[in-house]
């Protein structure tokens, strides 16, 4: 079985990307685009920026500090791209991985140390800056790339480099080694996966050691506090995810992995509690996490401003990774629900329609459109409303690339009694002598058809997730139709080849309101359709419409229409509202406060587009949360 997470215990066992093959449709097309456009694009930029060249220079010991290019963690982008390529090859595609592997392996030092930033003549000594240096973080990504290769059945220069690095870490940071931690968690889950892939117990022991060491004030008290790297409170005692969002979520992934492999139910329960609180109070409608630009961090409970939302793409990838681990451990649909929301509304949003430009942050409101970006150079994080081809900190594109290449491994599972489908994507699912074909136009339409192509004689259960947003769905089986509620709709029978069942999910548009404690969007509503969050984008409206001042009429019907400019099957929505009156008498006079305006706003419809597709038609302003007209304002 080939997949990114293969636990030895838990409620569900994942089916690998060799068993779940995506074919067309929303995710199949994105996976294809990832292979065709994003992976070569990232490969180009790794060369262009010199981040791959660093390895070549390191191999010849010619890497004085002034010659090294990129940030302290740029090695990890090479590893994440190698991981993406490894999954791509493993699922039957092709990618120039051998070259990357050779270049990486040649830079490794005797004893297993590998980092282009430290330890060579003129550079700072190795492990002299564990707080910011990212050496162990980079190993984590190297090890994950090595595991991807191993799972694909290949033992090559990359896997050897990963194993040698892991062995080096176990000696250097083991019980009798440095009592130290990396400022950026990541290596924990990588070591557990290497343990799973090789059976070598010391990798698991080392992961547990790192996990237990964190929260003991091992790292220095920096300006942002030790909470920034989760070294303020032991992971078992934490109540919600806090600090730097990617760090917090990667650490939680490692904690689940350690808990599952060591049978530590208390640790698993602690992470589930933290996840619950975080989802209840610190998560955006899109599934995005991390509301603060300062420290790229989670905010306080209900601190979820739409315009200042940080919502780093990597945090969304990490959240999907965590949801998948929790789903496998517990079998509970709520984890697949959040993974779905995050995949459709942040991971899918992060990449442009051509697969060659990327968001780093994913705010829910864009106030200024900014310039059209020149695609020939990297850009800072928030230069424009447009996606950038590359950034000086380009952790997100390679993270999305590895996720899409391995997406087949996040769709379906088995248990003793049958198969569970957690995400709906057209393609095939096989497990032993059972084979299914899934055909769906999801998320544009709500119908999912599953045909049994092959099966043994013994009865088994097919479980289909009904998302919480659906409320209810219709399941049509050979025995007839029935209503099914959120969770898993289970069909248990002796199947025959040719049997078909259909799930009909209600994807009609619906209004959604925020908890009033999210002050920043109180009095607003958003429109969702199926798993998709919608937004108003300036390019669909005439310039007189002030998106930052519009109101919507929730009592009027929401209508649907095709929007082929953004893709086949894409559905746009129209809502009634007004074109935005300035709300106070003094507005426009250089002071944004005053008595309520008596000027009647002009009625006007608003077009809404799927949030994940915004900013594909040039620079734009945008908002997800729409102020709702009070009853007396309705005409
Ligand atoms: O520090 C490495 C990566 O860069 C983090 O995960 C991202 O948040 C970005 O800061
Ligand atoms: Zn990132």
TrEMBL record:
This protein's record includes keyword Calcium: no
GO molecular function: hydrolase activity
InterPro entries for the chain: 6-hairpin_glycosidase_sf, 6hp_glycosidase-like_sf, Beta-AFase-like, Beta-AFase-like_GH127_C, Beta-AFase-like_GH127_cat, Beta-AFase-like_GH127_middle
Domain Non-reducing end beta-L-arabinofuranosidase-like GH127 catalytic: 19-408
Alphabetic keyword roster: Hydrolase
Domain Non-reducing end beta-L-arabinofuranosidase-like GH127 middle: 419-506
One Pfam entry name: Glyco_hydro127M
Residue ranges annotated for the Non-reducing end beta-L-arabinofuranosidase-like GH127 C-terminal domain, each copy included: 509-627
SUPFAM superfamilies: Six-hairpin glycosidases (SSF48208)
Protein name: Glycoside hydrolase family 127 protein
Organism: Phytohabitans maris
């Amino acid at each position: 079985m080939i997949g990114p997470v293969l636990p030895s215990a838990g409620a569900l066992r994942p089916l690998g990307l060799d068993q779940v093959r995506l074919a067309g449709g929303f995710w199949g097309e994105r996976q294809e685009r990832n292979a065709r456009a994003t992976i070569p694009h990232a490969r180009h930029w790794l060369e262009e920026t010199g981040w791959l060249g660093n390895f070549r220079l390191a191999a010849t010991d010619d890497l004085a500090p002034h010659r090294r290019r990129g940030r302290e963690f740029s090695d990890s982008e090479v590893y994440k791209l190698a991981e993406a390529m490894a999954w791509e090859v493993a699922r039957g595609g092709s990618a120039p991985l051998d070259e990357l592997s050779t270049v990486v392996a040649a830079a490794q030092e005797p004893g297993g140390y590998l980092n282009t930033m430290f330890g060579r003549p003129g550079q700072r000594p190795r492990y002299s800056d564990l707080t910011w240096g990212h050496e162990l973080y980079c190993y984590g990504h190297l090890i994950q790339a090595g595991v991807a290769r191993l799972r694909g059945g290949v033992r090559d220069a990359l896997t050897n480099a990963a194993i040698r690095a892991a062995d080096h870490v176990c000696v250097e940071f083991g019980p009798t080694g440095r009592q130290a931690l990396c400022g950026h968690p990541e290596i924990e889950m990588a070591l557990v996966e290497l343990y799973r892939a090789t059976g070598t117990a010391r990798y698991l022991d080392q992961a547990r050691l790192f996990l237990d060491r964190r929260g003991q004030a091992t790292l220095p008290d920096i300006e942002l506090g030790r909470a920034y790297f989760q070294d303020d409170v032991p992971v078992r005692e934490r109540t919600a995810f806090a600090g730097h969002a990617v760090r917090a979520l990667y650490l939680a992934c490692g904690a689940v992995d350690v808990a599952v492999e060591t049978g530590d139910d208390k640790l698993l329960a602690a992470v589930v509690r933290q996840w619950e609180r975080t989802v209840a109070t610190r998560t955006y409608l899109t599934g995005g996490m991390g509301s603060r630009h300062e420290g790229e961090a989670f905010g306080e409970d209900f601190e979820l401003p739409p315009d200042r939302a940080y919502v780093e793409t990597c945090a969304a990838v990490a959240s999907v990774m965590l949801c998948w681990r929790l789903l496998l451990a517990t079998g509970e649909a709520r984890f697949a629900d959040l993974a779905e929301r995050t995949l459709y509304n942040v991971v899918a949003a992060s990449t442009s329609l051509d697969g060659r430009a990327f968001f780093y942050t994913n705010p829910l409101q864009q106030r200024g459109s900014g310039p059209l970006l020149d695609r020939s150079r990297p850009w800072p994080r928030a230069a424009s409303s447009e996606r950038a081809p590359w950034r000086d900190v380009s952790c997100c594109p390679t993270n999305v690339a590895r996720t899409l290449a391995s997406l087949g491994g996040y769709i379906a599972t088995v248990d003793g009694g049958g198969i569970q489908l957690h995400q709906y994507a057209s393609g095939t699912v096989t497990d032993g002598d059972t084979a299914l074909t899934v055909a769906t136009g999801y998320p544009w339409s709500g119908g999912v058809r599953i045909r049994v192509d092959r099966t043994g004689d013994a009865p088994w259960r097919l479980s289909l997730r009904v998302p919480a947003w659906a409320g209810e769905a219709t399941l049509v089986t050979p025995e007839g139709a029935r209503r099914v509620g959120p969770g898993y709709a289970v069909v248990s029978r002796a199947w025959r080849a040719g049997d078909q069942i259909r799930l009909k999910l209600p994807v009609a548009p619906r209004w959604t309101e925020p908890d009033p404690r999210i002050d920043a969007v109180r009095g607003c509503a958003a429109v969702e359709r199926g798993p998709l969050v919608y937004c108003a984008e300036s390019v669909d409206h005439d310039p007189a419409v002030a998106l930052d001042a519009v109101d919507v009429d929730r009592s009027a019907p929401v209508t649907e229409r095709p929007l082929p400019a953004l893709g086949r099957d894409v559905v746009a929505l129209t809502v009634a509202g007004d074109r935005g009156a300035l709300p106070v008498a003094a507005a426009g006079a250089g002071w944004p406060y005053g008595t309520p305006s008596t000027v009647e706003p002009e009625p006007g419809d608003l077009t809404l587009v799927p949030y994940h597709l915004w900013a594909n038609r040039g620079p734009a302003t945008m908002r997800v949360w729409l102020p709702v007209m009070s009853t007396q304002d309705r005409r």
